Amino acid sequence: MSTPSESRLREHPDQRFAGLIHHVDLNEAVERLRHEPVRLTHGHRQMALYHHGSLTVALFQFNPDGGLEKHVADAAVIIHVLEGTISVKTAESTTTLTSGQMLMLPPGVPHDLTAPHPALVLLTVCLGHTPT
User: Fold this and answer.
1) Residue 43, exposed/middle/buried by CB under 10 A (0-12, 13-18, 19+)?
2) pTM value > 0.85
3) What share of the chain is helix, strand, coil (3-state, %, to 5)?
4) 37 Cβ contact list (under 8 Å, min separation 6)
5) Neighbours of 59 (CB within 10 A)
6) What region, left, alpha or beta, does residue 8 occupy, with left being phi > 0 and alpha being psi -120 to 50 degrees?
7) Are 45 and 29 in contact (CB under 8 A)?
8) Which of 89, 100, 128, 132 is deepest in the core (most CB within 10 A)?
9) What is d(CA 15, CA 113) in angstroms, rounded to the nearest whole number?
10) Cβ atoms < 10 Å from Cβ of 79
C-alpha cells in the first residue's frame, strides 16, 4: 500500500510553495504537465505554479474539445493563452483568444471555457477584490 506522499504526482503544496522567492520555468512546467501519467478531466489537466494568500497562478493544458464548464469565481481572473485557441463565453459575449492574448474578468462573472484545438493557458486568480 502506498503512503499519501508516494501517490502524489507533485510535491505537497506546503513544500512546493514554501519560501519567499519562486522561480518558474514555464517551458519546463509545460513539459512536466504534458507528460504526467494522469487521466485528463474534462479534456484538460492543470498544475498550480504558485499560491500565496489570495493569489493563485495555474497552468492548464487543454486537449481538443476540452474545457471548463460554466462556473463563477469570487475573484478577479486573468486568462492568458500561451499556445492555441480558446473560447470564453459569458452572458455578455463570446471571446476567442489566441496565443499571446489575455482576457480579464472581474469577480462574479459566470463563464465557461472551451478549446477547439490543443491549448496552453496560464490562469491567474486573485481573491479579495476591493471595489473601486
Assistant:
1) middle
2) no
3) 15, 45, 40
4) 9
5) 20
6) beta
7) no
8) 89
9) 31
10) 22
